[in-house]
Design a protein that fits this description.
Strand content of chain B: 5-15%
Number of strands of chain B: 10
Number of strands of chain A: 7
Number of domains of chain B: 3
Number of helices of chain A: 12
CATH architecture of the largest domain in chain B: Beta Barrel
Radius of gyration of chain A: 17 Å
Largest sheet of chain A: 7 strands, mixed
Oligomer: heterodimer
CATH class of the largest domain in chain B: Mainly Beta
Helix content of chain A: 40-55%
Structural class of chain B: alpha+beta
Chain lengths: 250, 504
């Protein structure tokens, strides 16, 4: 089982769109996938038309494994389930460590309901200072969408610095350019510069700025499901393949 | 959606209208046709083991689907190396068929057209809450609708709602219905062991006639499978049916006039005799792997020669047997026998014909049991193989008698006697098989009187080694058989035999 966190300490960078489409891509590739909506805005659940679960506000929630497994919802697509939760961060730590522990009651309960996942994708809330380092430690990969602008570049630099300061494995950090507009000189220049600085921390696949992605809010489905042959869908698929490849080697 | 709950059931084709009109409250339904209609074929073994266990195996295009009695629907690729379960590609269907006989091939039962639709239940934001895969199966004389429910995790209410609606329009679990009658009403039932209703007061003459009349069609049902060479079990079942008939003729003494008894015996023996060699060769070839496992690699080349020889002999013998089974004279002979046991007017009554079945059964079984005990009492470490063979024959006859008349006695008690008897017979049977195999290998060896011929020397070595191993196994089995006899010959068993068949 692999845990992939999709994270950005800056809002509006296409993080949720990436989480939703990547989860869909993994599921399509035959991986049993659970997408955890950890963002308080609950946007990834919204895209899958899954209504938020009220029960999960309960702090004693993770003591009750049964309740947890019950709050998972099947998406409309094969191999893809959604956890529509707004977890507290403390609970979230517990969640990750229990998913890691093969003999934990959580893991056993999931196996019992045939929900033992190959991939758990976390749509993380955008706040590094509060989010525990444990997420970064537990995850196999941390995906970071970066809009090729000066501000985003600084944010990514800060994240990389944070990793080094806290002795976190920088190798787990996988940035990718998001909402890319190649007609803009700034985008092209920033990408060239960042590739120079961060090199292997940046993936080759890029997600373009596309109206198809914006329309996801209207259609409430992954763009890969509604417009599978669009440029955006092909970009997400390429991103998924590259992550798969990178996780194999780490 | 993780497919956590899939439940299958079936409906009559017309019930679909009711399902379309059903009310799902806040949920909306949409029905979509998934693809063009495709051809399907239903497969089963000739012994109908899938039908009897309420399973339905369907091939469409490159997919095999297995509908289980408990509602599970399993799927895998149809690609296969042959028609036996072992030949299927690895997958859930193959796994779920592992209980089928390894000797039985999967054969097409019939075919038709399959239309695939999906019924989806949505909520107010168009979120799917539950799906049902609808498979409309249409055949020349029938049809049905197979429904596979697919629940989505966290939407259990919608699933149970759909389940209840299906039930209300008449859906039945596969485990409770014979789908074969709905799809292929003309397809005959086959039972290698037909159920024969024998009552205590019926005349022994009628009981014998009923048993013979029930086994004749079993034998005939296997003819086409033998000639088509689907699998070796056809010939095996054919022979067993004839053997049961012969057992009635030889064990039920004084039922028919003595002249007619002799005539019938020789006619059924003749039918059986022509099948003997093919069956022997089948047994060798089925055991082929075992022989290879018994001998070291260095002797395998000799086995190759041996089995090539046996395989070509089998092909030749089977062709002869098939010609015989297709011949006019064979067909006419069987037709005469069918008529004889159908009208029964030309059957002559022997001195015991009018005894009541139960009284007659008691006498026969008790006598045979006494005989078995008599031989067994003399058995010790010095007993000759011939005596062990005699014991085997009597045990076999005893078992046939008890099985024929089983319906006349309390089932539990009969079974408690048959179980240890069967174990004993298995040992005796193996003992006999090893002896027969040694003999026939020796005979085979003597047929090759040109040892210089390529491969014959190697084969002779392999056969020699096999005979040595078979002899050792025979000795081991003999010890086991005698041990099983001691277990069979318990004071309780004796008491039970006396109570059931002697009546005191």
């Amino acid at each position: 089982m692999k845990i992939i966190a999709c994270y950005s300490n800056k809002g509006g960078v296409g993080k949720t769109a990436a989480s939703v489409n990547l989860a869909y891509a993994f599921a399509q590739a035959g991986k049993r996938t659970l997408l955890c909506d950890l963002d308080p805005q609950g946007a990834s659940s919204f895209y899958f038309r899954v209504k938020p679960s009220r029960k999960l506000a309960d702090t004693a929630f993770f003591e009750d494994v049964g309740k947890f497994t019950k709050s998972i919802r099947g998406s409309d697509y094969d191999n893809l389930d959604i956890l529509p939760a707004n977890l507290g961060f403390r609970d979230f730590d517990v969640f990750l460590s229990r998913m890691r522990n093969k003999r934990s009651r959580l893991k056993t309960a999931l196996q019992r309901v045939k929900a033992d996942y190959d991939v758990i994708l976390l749509d993380c809330p955008p706040n590094i200072s509060i989010l525990s380092e444990n997420v970064f430690r537990s995850a196999d990969a941390i995906l970071v969408p970066v809009i090729p602008t000066t501000l985003s570049q600084r944010t990514f630099d800060q994240l990389a610095a944070f990793f080094k300061e806290h002795d976190l494995p920088v190798k787990k950090l996988h940035g990718f350019f998001s909402m890319v507009q190649k007609v803009k000189a700034l985008h092209v220049d920033t990408m060239a510069e960042m590739t120079g600085t961060h090199n292997r921390r940046l993936m080759k696949a890029q997600i373009p700025f596309a109206s198809d992605i914006e329309r996801m809010g209207l259609l409430r489905a992954p763009v890969m499901a509604t417009a599978p042959s669009s440029t955006a869908s092909k970009a997400y698929w390429a991103l998924h393949c590259e992550i798969q490849e990178r996780m194999k080697t780490t | 959606m993780m497919q956590l709950e899939i439940a299958g059931c079936c409906l009559s084709n017309t019930a679909m209208n009711d399902l379309e009109k059903a009310d799902f409250g806040k949920l909306k339904t949409v029905q979509t046709q998934d693809a063009e209609a495709v051809d399907f074929t239903v497969f089963d073994c000739f012994d109908q083991s899938l039908r009897q266990s309420h399973r339905l195996l369907i091939e469409t295009g490159d997919t095999l689907e297995l509908f289980m009695a408990d509602g599970q629907v399993l799927k895998q690729v149809a690609r296969r190396a042959g028609n036996f379960v072992v030949d299927l590609s690895d997958g859930p269907v193959k796994q779920a068929l592992s209980d089928l006989s390894a000797l039985r091939s999967l054969l097409p039962v019939g075919s038709g057209e399959l239309r695939h639709e999906t019924l989806t239940l949505f909520d107010d934001v168009e979120k799917v809450q539950c799906r049902a895969q609808l498979r409309f199966l249409t055949t020349t004389d029938g049809g049905m609708l197979l429904v596979a429910l697919q629940g989505l995790r966290g939407y259990g209410k919608a699933l149970s709602q759909l389940g209840k609606t299906l039930e209300s329009v008449g859906a039945i679990a596969l485990g409770e219905v014979d789908v074969y009658t709905q799809l292929f009403p003309q397809h005959p039932r086959y039972r290698a062991k037909p159920e024969i209703a024998i009552s205590p007061d019926m005349a022994a003459f009628d009981a014998a006639n009923d048993i013979i009349a029930a086994y004749i069609p079993v034998a005939r049902a296997n003819e086409s499978g033998i000639t088509a060479d689907h699998d070796t079990a056809f010939l095996h079942d054919y022979r067993i049916a004839l053997r049961k008939i012969r057992a009635v003729l030889s064990l039920f003494k004084g039922i028919y006039g003595s002249e007619q008894t002799d005539d019938l015996k020789s006619r059924f023996s003749a039918l059986m005799a022509v099948t003997g060699r093919v069956r022997d060769l089948d047994v060798y070839l089925l055991e082929q792997q075992k022989y290879y496992d018994l001998l070291p690699q260095s002797l395998h080349a000799g086995l190759d020669t041996l089995f090539n020889h046996l395989a070509s002999e089998r092909a030749e013998m089977l062709a002869k047997l098939s010609d015989h089974l297709r011949s006019k004279s064979y067909d006419e002979e069987f037709a005469r026998l069918v008529k004889l046991f159908g009208s029964r007017k030309k059957l002559t009554r022997g001195p015991n014909a009018d005894l009541s079945a139960k009284a007659y059964a008691g006498v026969l079984i008790w006598k045979r049991y006494r005989k078995v005990c008599e031989i067994a009492s003399a058995i010790d470490a010095d007993t000759t193989d011939t005596e062990v063979h005699t014991l085997r024959i009597h045990c076999k006859k005893l078992r046939y008698l008890m099985e024929f008349f089983a319906p006349l006695f309390p089932q539990e008690q009969i079974n408690s006697l048959l179980k240890p008897l069967k174990r004993l017979q298995d040992n005796l049977g193996l003992f006999n098989d090893y002896a027969v195999q040694q003999d026939s290998l020796s005979i085979l060896l003597s047929q090759f009187n040109e040892p210089s011929h390529t491969g014959v020397l190697a084969m002779a070595q392999s056969i020699g080694a096999l005979i040595a191993i078979l002899h050792r196994r025979q000795m081991e089995e003999r010890i086991r058989a005698l041990d099983s006899f001691v277990k069979f010959d318990s004071p309780q068993t004796r008491k039970m035999f006396r109570k059931l068949f002697k009546g005191d």
